[in-house]
Write a structure and sequence with these properties.
Pfam family, one: MR_MLE_C
CATH class of the largest domain: Alpha Beta
Helix content: 25-40%
CATH topology of the largest domain: TIM Barrel
Domain Mandelate racemase/muconate lactonizing enzyme C-terminal: 158-253
GO molecular function: glucarate dehydratase activity
Shape: globular
Distance between the termini: 49 Å
CATH architecture of the largest domain: Alpha-Beta Barrel
Strand content: 15-25%
Structural class: alpha/beta
Number of strands: 15
Radius of gyration: 21 Å
InterPro entries: DgoD-like (IPR034593), Enolase-like_C_sf (IPR036849), Enolase-like_N (IPR029017), Enolase_C-like (IPR029065), Mandelate_racemase_C (IPR013342), Mandelate_racemase_N_dom (IPR013341)
Number of domains: 2
Strand order of the largest sheet: 7-8-9-10-11-12-13
CATH superfamily of the largest domain: Enolase-like C-terminal domain
Protein name: glucarate dehydratase
Oligomer: single chain
Length: 418
């Protein structure tokens, strides 16, 4: 089996509502690039990368000469062919490599008639547990629940946040809840976090302000939640050294997805422990296989692992499910933005949660198939709406955060629909 070509299509898939985070917002849609790698036996492997547009599509097309004639089984050679560590200082192809690795694993599985997890060490769990991913958000006009008009209500106050969490728990069965913070002043978000704990005392919690708290605020927040049923405190401050200082002074485990995203940083965390849990991302790490390798290192040095979410559609979610299926040391529920989507590009529609878990696909390769009509629909939507500035908030023109931040949104002001 040899690769004969590659296609890339950028899509915009609507969200139930625009989602706020510490550095800006998701403006009511996820923009992703769908990658299709063709082989000489007629099979097509699927991949996915965040962001997109004509530049991403052109970048993938430019890799065709690297890929043509390459055997998809030769994944290690593929890594050096596309993302040689020295050459990558100039071309930064890690996320492109990940999308192509996904597609090659999909091709191999389809060629052999086996699911991806059988290529990755074998499945040890049939479904993967997920945490709810709670965002402060603008009101949406779409398909979400919670308002009489059929739109999706804002999430800004403690009561609104609790109502949202309880609704997700009822619909999807979540028993672990992650609050994406760093939007409002830390003392206010602490009030919201404690309201979640009071409303669901048997459930576990996580808080992630995306590293915008000062050292003082990070320590203050960490101390103030020590009595709660926390999984971990994720990236309260920026950098391995900042996290190490917080970790030395609080009892809650620390986690990161921002500053341990490659093997050099993982080695630093092994030698000088800054975090207790590493959130592995199949895109950020360059594929599923590097995540498995990193998980093995974490297992050796008793560092916890979870699975990070970077705004995935069904293809990348499938990679997360196959990763979760094979990791013996996945002791924390995975993250997913997935329940915020109002659609998907895969046949059968979005994956479904049952008791807070998603079943691992058992079909050949990644076990997902493109819904061509949906791809065409969402490609047209991308052409209509274009991309968006992830690091800007459309409700606060001209705003951008500092690190550490002091430019918080006003919790007393209702969020205006955009």
């Amino acid at each position: 089996m040899k690769i004969t070509g590659i296609r890339a299509t950028t899509v915009a898939v609507p969200l139930e509502a625009p989602l706020l985070h510490s550095n800006g917002a998701h403006w009511g849609r996820f923009v992703r690039t769908i990658v299709e790698v063709e082989a000489d036996n007629g099979l097509v492997g699927l991949g996915e990368m965040g962001g997109g547009g004509e530049s991403a599509e052109a970048a993938f097309r430019a890799l065709a000469p690297y890929l043509e004639g390459h055997d998809p089984f030769e994944l290690e050679a593929l890594r050096f062919k596309i993302a040689n560590p020295t050459a990558s200082l100039y071309n930064n192809r890690t996320q492109m490599l990940a999308a192509i690795e996904f597609a090659c694993i999909d091709l191999i599985g389809k060629h052999l008639g086996v699911p991806a997890y059988d290529l990755l060490g074998g499945r040890i769990r049939e479904s993967v547990p997920f945490a709810s991913y709670l965002f402060y958000r603008y009101p949406g006009a779409g398909t979400g629940t919670g308002s009489g008009s059929g739109g999706t209500p804002e999430v800004r106050t403690p009561d609104q946040l609790v109502a949202h969490a309880l609704d997700l728990k009822k619909r999807h069965g979540f028993t672990v809840h992650k609050l994406k913070g760093g939007v409002f002043p830390p003392a206010y978000e602490l009030e919201c976090y404690r309201a979640l704990a009071a409303a669901m005392p048997e459930d576990r919690l996580r808080y992630d302000p995306n590293a915008v708290l000062s050292m003082d605020e990070g320590l203050r927040f960490g101390k103030a939640i020590e009595d709660l049923n926390n999984d971990y405190l994720e990236d309260p401050v920026w950098g391995l050294e900042g996290l190490r200082q917080v970790r030395e002074k609080i009892d809650t485990p620390l986690a990161t997805n921002t500053v341990v995203v490659n093997f050099e940083q993982l080695a630093t965390n092994v030698l000088h422990r800054s975090v207790d849990v590493v959130l592995l991302d199949t895109t950020f790490w360059g594929g599923i296989r590097p995540c498995i390798k990193a998980a093995g290192i974490c297992d050796t040095f008793q560092i916890g692992v979870s699975v990070h979410s970077s705004g995935e559609l069904g293809i990348q979610l499938a990679t997360m499910l196959h990763l979760g299926a094979v990791l013996p040391n996945l002791t924390y529920s995975a993250d997913a933005h997935y329940h915020h989507l109002a659609g998907d590009v895969i046949e059968g529609g979005p994956f479904r949660y049952v008791d807070g878990r998603i079943q691992v696909p058992t079909g050949p390769g990644l076990g997902v198939t493109l819904d061509r009509a949906k791809v065409a629909e969402y490609a047209e939507l991308y052409k209509e709406l274009g991309g968006y500035a992830y690091d800007r908030d459309p409700g606060r023109p001209g705003w951008y955060p500092l690190v550490p931040n002091e430019r918080w949104a006003d919790p007393a002001t209702a969020l205006t629909a955009i």
